[in-house]
Design brief:
The complex is a heterodimer of chains A (about 475) and B (about 500). Chain A has about 475 residues and is of the alpha/beta class. Chain A has 9 helices and 21 strands. With about 500 residues, chain B is α/β, with parallel strands linked by helices. Chain B contains 8 helices and 22 strands. Chain B has helices at about 135-140, 235-240, 255-260, 265-280, 295-305, 330-340, 390-405, 455-475, and strands spanning about 30-35, 60-65, 70, 75-80, 85-95, 100-110, 115, 140, 160-170, 185-190, 195-200, 210, 220-225, 245-250, 285-295, 315-320, 345, 350-355, 380-385, 410-415, 435, 445-450. The chains are: A alpha/beta (about 475), B alpha/beta (about 500). Chains A and B meet through helix 1, strand 1, strand 2, strand 3 and strand 8 of A and strand 1, strand 2, strand 3, strand 9 and strand 10 of B.
């Protein structure tokens, strides 16, 4: 009797599918590419005959459905046939128009449930128990352009990621999803104010947390790619800091940029003197080329005296003398040290190694008087970051300043150590400032260890900042 | 340490959070500043009031997780880094779409590490007491001096409700505007999950809004009916779509048809709504439910028993009654109520109590829907302190009818002591009394809905959770109730 009832339900449900397919004008077996957009509109999907003949539609939930990019989420599917194979896939359509995806292969349990937080992925772009695998293992879909790097430019809108469930473990691209939902990942928390700074000289984005304030401040400097990148600043503001993302040269224009101390001192004062900033609680965070700037300023500038400094993927080589200018002139002298790998990707780390041998071409880190956190990847192919950190360590120890230094060296981790769950970029497009030629630089790192490093380093960076810029002795997110 | 604040960051009404006065902004704000001057710090308070950044609290942090949640999701409010065992007040402020200010507050004492966790710690006073994770939402009340009879209902469901949560030093009960809080954050509460589509429906003469869940579908469907106040009320349908049910909110009292012809809709209006859902390409035509409150219940029970066209998977009725003339439809129902309007009573404050209108429950079978003939599962949700309608008595009578007919296995009855008439989605504010404009007479009056805030809020939370399980069980049939997880509810 119950069997007949279930059979009737199955037949009825399948009939509904057929009817709805006919009404939507679709045909069995076709699928369409999803495009997430701000209004959450999706293309109409048609049903595949290969899909489950379960009498009940599956239920997919992602909680929270709106989260900050450094927060975890739970992906849960229920109402599935028991002990059956399924694939969960995430899809993101980037601002640059590329599609990024990740997927994991799962098996439902006897209650018809798949929980990404608790179950094993049997393969895909990630395997094992990986609650956030659908985010950190995102990569360009097959057939995409090369050398892509996922970086959000407009931080006032969220990243939209569509999570879909497919039947089976075979290639899902021929199938339509059984169920899917959109989740939002934000760099800016609610109430964060974003102020564009464009006074002709100073260019940047200032992010102010909600609340009465005042707050500690952070100056945020990115690297050799140039341009204005706000996402890390937006995220730091969401964690309680007034953060200034500073643009100090436009992409491809380093040659014409004169990186004088004055520009950065000006930016530092703008931050320090802002009414929402506690003036003696200002720090600096930087990556790659930004680390030379940071270390150079902290060592030599009489105006810049931060509470603490974070340097990721360190470089200390620069033109002789006290200024920062002319970096682009010093590097080409060692361009013959650039190697290419089997994919014709440029490896620059030996350039750095050669420059490290020149004592006159190093920032004098012995003059640094504030706590310094160095974060580096042991597989950094773009620069000899770990060797640079060794050099800094040696110099500071010799000067009796070793107690100021904290080092985090991550195994199998590359150059681009980003906020957590950012997709790993092993190689990316780069515009050579000497020739404006576009090349592919190898950054290094293996995806899983690199992603773990991003997660761990972010937490440690936040606790370092909190320790020095807020009162507390305890680390927390 | 210099601690002055720019004056734009003082005071309430969300100013310090950079939110605009309406408080309902969708996207973060961006300002352009063409010149950032070297600022001198503003010193001291602007208009009296003690303001001195307390050294020991200088780095108090406040966090709310998630900062963007659905309205029926729980959040965790955490204060950290305050002085150990210090007296703190956590304060919530919201400016609703109508422009009125609402607030809630609770008194805590931080622990030895200087922390307060609202989900675990006890409030010793304020607009709620005890351990109440969501108390700062459900105990929101109009600020002192507000117009009486206010009720908070979201009209624009595409933008979130924005609540400012702050922490103050000391145990305050007033004067929040004169003091600078130690920290403050903004929290967004959404009726629509990402990817949910809102589709106005005007075909087939309907005045309705359809909310489709995110994803390819098809989805089970639901018709959502409100009560005697009319209008097109969307928030519950939006929230149900966020849970995977294609839900259509219907205006049946102030709809286009009625406004143009002056006539009340007939049975075919609802059958048209049902057929619209049934033939929609993203709806599973054989899995449609109906949910209604108050007068909406009257419609649902009539349709569930008598309609030849509607084959409902299940029905859920909140604060309603089966008492109505069996012959005829909505017009006759409203006339019947009108005939009994002499039974209305008034409180000392001239608030109208309508619960006696249909009492005593008639024994005459021509005056009530014969729920013994129901063939689909029915959930009844009633508040025992409902002063607006005899929902409890009606539910008892319906239970008896179904027991005698032998179909009471279809009935789930949830009856809540000290809950009133307006049993809404969880964490929504409780209106014991509010302004009401009767659609028929156009008369404005203050209506007593009933309920005691604490128990009413508990009832809302419990009823919603059970309603979702009921809907899932009947619309996604085959699921074992134990295997369904409704986390955060």
């Amino acid at each position: 009797m119950i069997f007949l009832k279930k059979l009737m339900q199955t037949v009825q449900w399948f009939a509904d599918l057929l009817n709805s397919t006919k009404r939507s004008g679709g045909s069995f077996g076709s699928s369409s590419v999803e495009k997430g957009d701000r209004d959450g509109l999706h293309g109409v999907f048609s049903w595949s005959a290969a899909m489950s003949l379960s009498s009940t539609p599956p239920i997919l939930s992602v909680r929270p459905s709106r989260a900050l990019v450094d927060e975890a989420f739970e992906v849960l599917v229920e109402n599935l046939p028991p002990v059956s194979p399924f694939t969960l896939r995430s899809l993101h359509h980037s601002e640059d128009g590329d599609d990024w995806e990740a997927y994991g292969r799962y098996v439902s349990d006897h209650s018809g449930r798949v929980s990404v937080s608790e179950d094993l992925s049997f393969g895909g772009t990630y395997s094992g128990m990986e609650p956030l695998g659908l985010i950190w293992s995102l990569r360009p879909v097959p057939g995409s352009r090369t050398g892509l790097r996922l970086r959000k430019k407009d931080v006032t809108t969220p990243m939209l990621i569509t999570i879909s469930l497919y039947n089976g473990h075979e290639d899902f691209r021929d199938n339509s999803p059984l169920v899917s939902m959109v989740t939002e990942r934000w760099y800016m928390g609610p109430g964060i104010q974003r102020i564009e700074i464009t006074d002709g000289e100073l260019r940047g984005g200032l992010f102010i947390p909600p609340g009465p304030g005042p707050f500690p401040g952070i100056l945020d400097l990115w690297g050799g790619g140039g341009g204005l990148l706000e996402y890390r600043s937006a995220l730091l503001a969401s964690r309680g800091y007034v953060c200034l993302a500073l643009e100090y040269f436009k992409t491809g224009q380093m040659k014409s940029t004169d990186m004088s101390f004055e520009y950065f001192e000006n930016a530092y004062h703008v931050l320090k003197d802002h009414p929402q900033v506690i003036p003696d609680r200002v720090g600096i965070i930087s990556l790659c080329l930004g680390t030379i700037v940071t270390l150079g300023l902290v060592a030599e500038s009489t105006e810049i005296k931060p509470c603490c400094v974070v340097c990721i993927s360190n470089i200390i080589s620069k033109s002789p003398g006290k200024t920062l200018s002319g970096f682009h002139r010093s590097i080409p002298s060692e361009f013959n040290k650039i190697r290419v790998d089997e994919n014709n990707h440029q490896i620059w780390r030996d350039v750095g190694l050669a420059l490290l041998q020149e004592p006159s071409m190093k920032v004098d880190v012995a003059k640094i008087n504030c706590p310094l956190l160095l974060v580096n990847g042991c597989d950094d192919q773009n620069w000899c970051a770990v060797e640079t950190a060794d050099d800094i360590s040696k110099t500071m120890n010799a000067a009796g300043k070793g107690h100021l230094l904290t080092r985090l060296d991550y195994p199998e981790t590359g150059h681009l150590i980003e906020p957590p769950f950012s997709p790993h970029c092993p190689a990316g497009n780069f515009i050579m400032y000497s020739s404006n030629q576009k090349v592919l630089q190898r950054y290094g790192g293996k995806t899983k260890p690199h992603s773990d490093a991003q997660d761990d380093s972010w937490r440690k960076i936040l606790s370092f900042l909190r320790h020095h810029l807020y009162c507390s002795q305890k680390a927390m997110m | 340490m210099r601690h002055g604040l720019g004056s734009e960051f003082r005071g309430l009404a969300g100013c310090w959070c950079g939110a605009d006065a309406a408080g309902d902004q969708l996207t973060p704000q961006t300002h352009k500043e063409t010149r950032i001057k070297q600022k001198t710090r503003a010193r001291g308070p602007a208009a009296g009031g003690q303001f001195k950044m307390d050294e020991k609290h200088c780095c108090v942090t406040l966090s709310v997780q998630p900062s963007r949640g659905l309205v029926d999701e729980k959040f965790v409010i955490l204060v950290q880094n305050s002085f150990p065992s210090s007296l703190l007040t956590i304060y919530a402020h919201h400016q609703c779409e109508d422009g009125y200010s609402w607030h809630a507050f609770a008194h805590y004492t931080s622990d030895a590490t200087g922390a307060v966790n609202v989900s675990e710690d006890c409030s010793t006073g304020g607009t709620y007491s005890g351990v109440e994770a969501m108390g700062l939402l459900w105990s929101l009340k109009p600020v002192p001096g507000s117009k009486p009879g206010l009720r908070m209902r979201k009209k624009n469901v595409q933008a979130p409700m924005v609540v400012t949560i702050s922490v103050y030093s000391g145990h305050l009960t007033e004067g929040f505007g004169d003091q600078v809080p130690l920290a403050g954050v903004e929290v967004e509460r959404w009726y629509m999950a990402p990817g949910v589509q809102r589709i106005p429906v005007t075909e087939d003469g309907l005045t309705a809004t359809l909310f489709l869940p995110s994803g390819p579908g098809p989805f089970p469907g639901l018709l959502d009916l409100w009560g005697g106040g009319g209008q097109l009320v969307e928030y519950r349908a939006a929230l149900l779509a966020s849970h995977g049910i294609a839900s259509m909110a219907i205006d049946y009292l102030t709809c286009k048809y009625t406004m143009e012809t002056g006539k009340i809709v007939e049975q075919d209006y609802f059958e048209m709504a049902y057929k619209f859902l049934q033939k929609h390409p993203k709806v599973l035509g054989s899995r449609i439910a109906m949910l209604g409150l108050s007068l909406g219940t009257s419609v649902i029970l009539k349709m569930a028993v008598h309609s030849q066209i509607m084959k409902l998977s299940c029905a859920a009725c909140v604060s309603g009654s089966h008492v109505q003339p069996v012959d005829g439809f909505l017009k006759e129902v409203l006339d019947y109520f009108g005939k009994n309007s002499g039974n209305a009573r008034f409180t000392e404050d001239n608030e109208v109590i309508w619960r006696d209108l249909l009492l005593p429950i008639p024994t005459d079978l021509s005056l009530k829907v014969d729920v013994g003939k129901l063939q689909c599962p029915l959930m009844l949700i009633v508040g025992e302190d409902d002063q607006n309608w005899c929902a409890y008595e009606s539910a008892m009578d319906m239970k008896g009818m179904m027991e005698r007919a032998g179909n009471n296995h279809l009935l789930t009855l949830l009856s809540y002591p000290n809950a009133g008439h307006l049993i809404e989605p969880p964490y929504m504010t409780h209106a014991r009394v509010s302004h009401f404009r009767d659609v028929q007479s156009q008369q404005k009056m203050m209506v007593l809905w009933g309920g005691q805030t604490l128990e009413h809020s508990r009832a809302q939370e419990d009823a919603w959770r059970k309603l979702l399980v009921f809907l899932r069980k009947n619309l996604y049939s085959g699921a074992k109730s134990g295997s369904l997880s409704l986390s955060n509810l």
